[in-house]
Amino acid sequence: MTPAVPLPRSMFTLPADVGDRLDHTPESAYAHLRDTHPTWFLSPPGVGAIGIMGWPMAEGQVLHRDEERVVLQDPVILPDGQQTRRLRLLATRSEPPVAVLPLLDGDVVLVDRFRHAARTWQWEILRGVGIEGVADAENAAGQLHDQLGTSASEVIALGQVHPDPAILAEAVLLYAARIDVVGELAHGAGIRRVRAVAFAEAEQMAQAGQLTDAVAITALFRARRAGLAD
What is the pTM of this model? Predict the structure, then answer.
């Protein structure tokens, strides 16, 4: 049996200029994020928005932070006045993630990918994180190279989607891309196989529950509306 390897603590170290809040607690980390990322704590105008309480009424916590993600526990006021706490998952990167629907001779290319959170295999389109200094469309084309070992002859923007706005703050940028071939798969990314199906068959997989990924389903819908299924 392989011995367990202790993982490093994910909580980041606060800088010295935090002053008297420099106690390295989840609350002080939250206060620091309020100061350095104020847009994360804004509320839109209008009745019915869930407000975030501020110090000294209450303080939230940073439950986890690494190079890609921050998990916050916010103290909030619901529209009916009830006070509670809600979790949020935010991206530390400013560049948005992308998802790419590959089109091969009119067929849809799906990958069978293992997802840790769901602990199951999922039929999906390509997904990837944003890369600093790279334009969004170029980032989408890069996912084809990195995950399918191919390149795009055309990249078409399909807008954006929020996969789960109940807890995920970020939106995913959607693209379709025309390709001529499928190359070597990125097995290190959890992809075990690839499948090219007719556009209508991919839609049937979604209707039958064989394809349940919300991003892929939205991309199919947007591509159909854009005339890419013809």
Answer: 0.85
